[in-house]
Structures are given as C-alpha cells and as structure tokens.
Amino acid sequence: MALNEEHIMLYRELHLLQDILSNIVFLWLCFEDDKNKKNSLPFDFFHKVPKLFSLIVQKCFGLKEIFPSQKPQVHERGLVGLKDLLLIDLKKLECVGLEHPWVQSYSEKLERLKLEKCPLLQKIVSCAAPFINLRDLDVKLCV
Q1: What value does the mean pLDDT take over residues 11-31?
Q2: Looking at the 3D structure of the chain, how many domains does it have?
Q3: Domain range for residue 13?
C-alpha cells in the first residue's frame, strides 16, 4: 500500500478501514510535497498496521531522522514485525536513529536495510546496534 501524508491523516480519523489496515504487510510512504516539511515518521499511524513487514520511506521532504531520540508515546504496537526498512531519496536525512535504546527491538529484527540517495547521512548508527538478523545492507549514493 502506498500512502502520502493526506492518506495518513484520513486513515487516522477513519475507524472503518481498521480491518483493511490491520492486514497490510508492505507500506510505501512518500511525502514529496515540500509544504508539509515532516521531520519525523507518523508513529501514531503505525499501530494501525501491526502486521507491517516492509517499510519504504521515499522522498519525504524535510525528514531528518527516522527514529527520534525521544521515544514516541504511541510506539509500543507499531512496527513490531518490521524486517525490511528501505530509505530512498531522503535529501534531508541526517540520522537513522537505530542506536536509540527504545529502537533496539526493531534493529534486532531487521533483516534488510537499504539506504539510497541520502546525501546528508554520514553514518548509519553512531554506536553499536544489535543487527543480529541483518542479512542485507545496501548503501548507495550517500556521503
């Protein structure tokens, strides 16, 4: 399923689609409108897609960090099954944030991590992160 910011705002409000959303395993987020200037992912939405296996974040203008250093209030049920994380064409991305303590359970389950066209990203993690299941790391066109 492909979503932009408008879709996410709509699905946050609608409870009718919860059955459909709860079965999504693949999600592509693309907020390419520079008026939005989102600097973080919609963690309050991810609890609606508990079976999410693969997440592609592409062309999200203004996104500086994937996992913020401060734990979001609503993260507990979101992204629990995430195995594939693809970050593509994120011009402002400076940090993935996989080293933050609250993100450890995500980095432990990650099997595939792809970073492409993230020109401001200088390192994937700033310290040791437990990538015990990581099988595929693909980094292209990053500093």
Answers
A1: 71
A2: 1
A3: 2-140
